[in-house]
Queue: 4 jobs
Job 1
Amino acid sequence: MSTTEFTVEDLKRILREAAGSGDGVSLDGDILDIDFEVLGYDSLALLETGGRIEREYEISLDESAISEAETPRALVEAVNNDLGLAQADPVS
């Protein structure tokens, strides 16, 4: 389990990896409150992103965490909430 906070820079890196070449999607600048749809990421790309986050951070995100996160800020917060829960539960 990771003890590192999940940051927007981590999310940008994973989004780029999930998109391959990026297909012209710019993740430069402050993207925290821009809808994923506007950024060019559909539900399939976000599912791939969620899978990569789960594997890298050794967590299991609630399905709604990904489907309800409309912006990078919401997804970063959901991941950090899950990391906090995972860290507080020594049984997992």
Job 2
Amino acid sequence: MASNLRARTRAFAVADNNIATFHLLLTLALWIGALWIGTAGFGNPVFMAVSVVIFVAASVRLFGVQHDNGHYAYFTTRKANVISGVILGAFTANPFHTMRYNHNRHHAHIGNLDEMDSHEVTTWTVAQWRAASPMARLGYRLYRSPLSIGLIGPLFIFFIRYRVPKNARKVGLWDCAMQNALMVTLWLSVFAIGGWRASVVQALGSFSAAIVGTLMVYAGHNHEETYWRDAANVDFEDAALKGASVLELGPVFDFMSFNFAYHDLHHLNSRVPCYRLRACHNALRDELEPTRLGLWEALGSLRWKLWDEDRQRMVRFADVRAEAGEMRHV
């Protein structure tokens, strides 16, 4: 069934430069408009809140464009995708070529426990947890804590780690140098045009976008019945459809996230551009059996910490402790 579904997604794996350009220009207008609203209404809670919400939406959408650029899926030509992806690095804080290399490794090794370094969030198995030292366990607990996933991690990754991301040397440090120069130029331009108030709005919006984006990615793969296997047993199509969730948060969220919600289909066929993902999902709705997450289920994904290879699902630390207690009393 999965193979048949993948074949049927190819009808949607067609870029359209007119649609792509429209969405890019609209998103850039939202980004600029958010800065204008926040700067003009600086200090007013309502104006500031509206500004940050629009800025987050625009930033996440720009990240979606750059992400599709990395798959050469957004525009019809490789050259247009590369030019767009490099320029958008100024907005997303992500060097394009290094991002593309790392993200495509994530796609190639989706669901593979033996290639954990390829994925955005490290996941231990229960067996790894039991074999780990107390200090290693503490480190993993802190790493997977809501504070790290929802605040410290996003800010560190986007504004410090992404200055020179992992594998940057393999791709070329010139990529990071170019992106960082573009990013500094953008931030200085905002300050020169809008003053310190505009820079504050940009900082608030960028920090908020990093947090929202990280939580989206986390919920996209970290649901209870996700998919993990050792390298010898990974089925790519099952990993795509079972290892990624569908975030059912409504059409406004779909617009704000540029259809990130349909992450399972994206992993099934990464050449479907983001502006066609929703239509693709609707066309295959009756045949898909996705893991659907509402708002509370998505936020609840933070409680899943370890992959239980015996039960083939994610579990909490408390589940492992309870099981250990039961075994001691046998």
Job 3
Amino acid sequence: MAEDVVLVTGAGGCIAAWVMKDLLAAGAGVVGFDLSDNKRRAGLAMPEADVARIAWELGDIADGERLREVAARHGVTAIIHLAALQVPFCKADPVAGAKVNVLGTVNVLETARHLGIRRLAYASSIAVQGMGEDSPWLATLYGAHKACCEAMAKVYWQDWQVPSIGIRPGVVYGPGRDQGMSAAPTVAMLAAVTGSAYDIPFTGPFPFLYVREAAAAFVQAVAEDRTGAGVFDLNGVASTIEDVTGMIRGHAPAAAVGSRGAPFPFPAELADAPLAAAIGDYRKWPLEAGVAETIALFRDLVAAGRLAAADVR
């Protein structure tokens, strides 16, 4: 990807941090687009010298003119669209959620259409599973927004031949995952390192997707021109909350971490082989390796004074 310039929306987010790390490693130019200039999560994923190589542009994803101007000025050849407001934020402010999640995705599709960009990957969500008729899973505004985005992407291919790859991540965990209803397993890992007590507020089956695996899939999705508007699940590893709290205690025997409450309200196991068939192989992480790497990095960050018990919330 040495000839590519990739625009990453939601650049301040968790997945984006690791996506940008991988893009830089692949030799691509990286343009980060975010409402904030807070590069804290990017700094968890890569050295500050690499963060400085990112062309960080401030802008509101709901402002289509600004987005298109940035993409045109930098000669963007691919877009990875990760900007979103998650489940609790959409519930707290439905209008803001719709502006970011739905209007923001329209603006990304319009940017690709008008600039002739043939490489576009966007984040949908496992939350879409709650939107089907008679679905046993939780229905949310966030899931409704993502279902709308998937439908819009299909129409953009139908009407204007704008290709896209929609990826529905399972529950992302790893360094930088610190907000949203499903961030709790990562918070538990940090709690174990800082000596804080923490209970994950759900139990049972759970889809654990290491953030570096998610990043690898998104980067692979824009590695070449695509056709169509496919949407694919990215499950990670199906396991249980109880198994992972056991793994955490294996790395930190004194950890006061546990779980309580009802099962997680989304499916724990969805096939992600179709994604690899569509975009090519991407790097996968065993659950034990992802947990171990997360805890090891948290230990380094705590020792360096960059994370602390106050960050467990």
Job 4
Amino acid sequence: MTQELLQAFEKHYSKPADYGYFSPGRVNLIGEHIDYNGGLVMPCAVTFGTYLLISPNEDNVFRFKSLNFEDEYTIPLKDSYVKDGTGWFNYPIGVVHHFVKDGHQLGGLDMLYFGNIPIGSGLSSSASIEVVTAFALNTLYNAGYTKLELVKMSKSVENNFIGLASGIMDQFAVAFGEANKALMLDCETLNYEAVDSNLGEYVLAIINTNKPRKLAESKYNERVSECATALAALQTDLQITNLCEIDAETFNKHKHLITDPIVLKRATHVVEENDRVKLAAKALSENNLDEFGRLMYASHDSLRDLYEVSGVELDSVVEYARTNPNVAGARMTGAGFGGCAIALVKGDAFEDFAKECAACYTDKIGYAPDVYSSLIGNGVGVLNDIPAHA
């Protein structure tokens, strides 16, 4: 992979790359749509993600090129930047904006990106681009940011530069991921625990429905608003700052304060899903994959029925998984409305699972999904196989 990218860089820029970086994508094993409610989530890094090769230039410009998109972008060094349309390059430009706004003197750079994360799949391709860019600039210019500060910066790019009201989970997972560990992250305090995730005879199957998440952004912001409405109603009787401060028992005693039935459904999912994450961490740490799988199915059912962010495509994958005895559990992952589902599948049965799941899905939906197998990987870092040219 790296050798092909080095050749592509040299072909495009007529010079070799000097530096290389990699940031993974992520899947969230459980704990969906509660990161922006101060809850517990359990993401992990996957073994595919975004590669970035860089070489300085003396032209005082940033050149952005991706092997995944046709559009390129060149912009001069300035002391401030603004979003320009909807192109992919806005994500790294947003990172550059933060660096210069903080007073860092950057030089011209030629940058080549390549991602093997399926675009629009819900595996955090945008967070991966943000974090790899922030990590690279921090390393190149000795800017002195901690990894957590880079995570917060990348989230700010997503929220304030791009304009999507997302939580911090995606950026945190791709930065702090550890091989064979899930991260139980408290999205309010940003404290986290690396939970041993010995999948034993199982592998993590990632099923991309290949339905673009066209509704995800508008519906995502709508759900954020609905949760804020639920919180305001509960705050008339409870001293809380987010929904996930209370457990299901406390919520049930006060849910009468929420008079809108739709808003009540959203809040019920949030509180119960937060409790499920705690149970899931216990199950994983005890290697109780049957219990973990049961919690995955329960999470999906709640996202389908209470939070209403699933859809026939994601539901079809999970419905098939329930019929396969080699699957411990399955659920949608990410924002929903398309994107990906995940399943715990016995490794020696993965190929059969992939074929049967694809056939069942295609028969029902009319087009095929893509089915991948992934390990739990490490977070952002330097590519060590870049030749030195000094």
